[in-house]
Amino acid sequence: MPLAGCTPAAARVFFMTTRAVHLLPVDAEELPDYPFGADDRLDSHYFMVWERRRWLNSDMRLKGTPECRALYFDLTNIAYDQSPVGTLPDDMDVLAKMLFLDPGHFRALCKLDYGPLHKWTRCRCEGGEVRLMHPMVLRSLTEAIARKEDNRARNEAANAAKRLQRLRATVAGYQAELAKNDAAVRWIDEWLMKEGCEYRSAAWIERAMLAWSNHVFDLGRARLS
After folding, report:
1. Phi and psi dihedrals of 173, rounded to 5?
2. Angle CA(158)–CA(205)–CA(175) in degrees, nearest 5?
3. What residues form DSSP beta bridges with 124?
4. Long-range CB contacts for residues 79-83, cutoff 8 Å, separation at least 24
5. How many CB atoms lie within 10 A of CB 135?
6. Which of 38, 99, 163, 191 is 20 to 30 A away from residue 224, measured at CA?
7. How far apart are CA 132 and CA 129, in angstroms?
8. What is the pLDDT of residue 29?
């Protein structure tokens, strides 16, 4: 019996792995953790990076049948709309349904050396769910999410610079010298954000400037004590 001596967790994973005939049974504890979760999204991306030269020279393209190559490409596209992004369900019947195929035919194709699930391997996602991942898809997603974070950081920096510029101009209308003090302007900006100010009206600016004055007074008193 292949399950003799197995723990309940290992037995559950064995039954799950028997659905995918191209993959070997493995204990869930030995699976790699998938680096992205449900909150990691690329909703604004309607395209994916496809490494054309790598694909043209890959074993999958050179040795796979036309049908397997087409289904492989379909599954790659499908993975980008899954959760977590870049993964596929570890269920042959579900995958066959996604591809509009007969489950028996899909299983037969997956028995080939270069079937539709070539190089797709099991991984453990957040919450312990076992799904399928692909190294090429994961690399592409890692680069895309990194670019997304870089763009967000640049946008936030640009927005902060414009916000400080507007604040400096407003403060200059009250105290020209104070507006030249970078530390003061940044402190006032942070104070307004911490206070939850959404619209920087004159009343809010005056309260922030008063808070800065009190802050400076407290610092001076602390140095003298």
Report:
1. -70, -20
2. 95
3. 33, 130
4. 79/134, 79/137, 80/42, 80/45, 80/48, 80/137, 80/141, 82/131, 83/38
5. 10
6. 191
7. 10
8. 62
State how far the alpha carbon of 172 is from the alpha carbons of 190, 211, 212, 213, in Å: 18, 17, 15, 15
Phi and psi, residue 44, nearest 5°: -85, -5
Contact 17, 23 (CB under 8 A): yes
What is the reported pTM? 0.59
**Cα(162)–Cα(185) distance, integer angstroms:** 13
Averages of pLDDT over runs of 10 residues in the chain (225 residues) are 43 40 56 86 69 92 97 95 94 97 97 97 93 93 77 84 94 94 94 93 94 91 78
CA distances from 170 to 20, 37, 164, 189, 198 (A): 65, 43, 10, 12, 16
In 3D space, the residue among 86, 110, 82 whose CA is nearest the CA of residue 96 turns out to be: 110
Distances (CA, A) of 5 to 2, 15, 49: 9, 15, 45
Distance, in Å, from the CA atom of 203 to the CA atom of 74, rounded to the nearest integer, reads: 58
Q: What is the DSSP string of 42-92?
A: -TT-------HHHHHTSHHHHHS-HHHHHHHHHHHHHHTTSSSTT-EES-H
The residue extents of the domains of the chain are 28-144, 173-224
Sequence letter at residue 8: P
Cβ contact 31:90 at 8 Å: no
Q: CB of 34 within 8 A of CB of 127? A: no
Q: Which amino acid is at 222?
A: A
